[in-house]
Amino acid sequence: MGWRDSLGGSHIPVLVKMIQQVNGAVLELGVGNNSTPLLHWLCAEKKVPLLSLENDKKWYEEFASFKTFNHRVEFVENWDHLHHLKVYDTRWSLVLVDNSPVRKRRVMAKRLRNHADFLLLHDAEPENDHKNGYTKIYDKFKHIYIYDKVWPFTAIVSKVKEIKL
Fold first, then answer.
1. Helix (H, G, I), strand (E, B), or coil: what is residue 49?
2. What radius of gyration do the chain's Cα atoms show?
3. Which end of the chain has less Cβ packing within 10 Å, N or C?
4. To which CATH superfamily is domain 3-158 assigned?
5. H/E/C letters for each residue in 51-70?
6. Closest CA to 122 of 141, 100, 140
7. Could you read off the pLDDT of 25-43 as tens digits, one per residue?
8. Would you state the torsion angle of the CA atoms of residues 113, 78, 69, 58, taken in this order, to the nearest 10 degrees?
9. What is the pTM of this model?
């Protein structure tokens, strides 16, 4: 089995390592079978708030049961209208960008770059850049690390903090 034979969840090693480094609120853009349960338990363990946002009704309904005192799960009609959720009024220690449609990921990362210590950009392999356009925003960050040990890749970017993996 080669690095391109990943069974999903290639961002799990990065999420685990980064959660260990943060002490503040975590934002998840796009729920998923790998990230949402993992973030739910890691954030509960650290006692840091987690906000998971999803724009697909089916996915939202599947993960709505994760709501607790520490974990908000919210449905969003449109990624362009998040102000009512105070997304841009919060300083996020970590933001996982894994939302659909994929073309919106670059937009969300660019919007959140001044509101987060670290952003994890899922599906960051070069052959997907025509879809997500991450390379067009890398110059907006001081620190960039591409986790390429498993496919698909995960990029970690930050304007303010050094990335230690």
1. coil
2. 15
3. N
4. Vaccinia Virus protein VP39 (3.40.50.150)
5. EEEECCHHHHHHHHHHCCCC
6. 100
7. 999 999 999 999 999 999 9
8. -130
9. 0.94
Residue 4 in this model has a pLDDT that exceeds 80 = no
Whether 158 contacts 141, CB under 8 Å: yes
CA dihedral angle for residue 127, residue 56, residue 144, residue 142, rounded to 10 degrees? 130
Pick the closest to residue 112 from 44, 46, 25 (CA basis): 25
Q: Among the residues of the chain, which ranges form H helices?
A: 12-21, 35-46, 57-63, 105-112, 129-132
**Domain regions of the chain by residue span:** 3-158
Q: How far apart are the C-alpha atoms of 158 and 13, rounded to whole Å?
A: 18
Residue 118 in tokens: 């670290």
Residue 72 token pair: 């908000």
The answer to whether the CB of 157 falls within 8 A of the CB of 46 is no
- Exposure string (b/e) for 70-80, b if CB count within 10 Å is 16 or more? ebebeebeebe
Residue range 41-87, pLDDT digits in tens: 999 999 999 999 999 999 999 999 999 999 999 999 999 999 889 99
Q: Show the CA angle centred on residue 82, arms to residues 78 and 87, nearest 5°.
A: 145
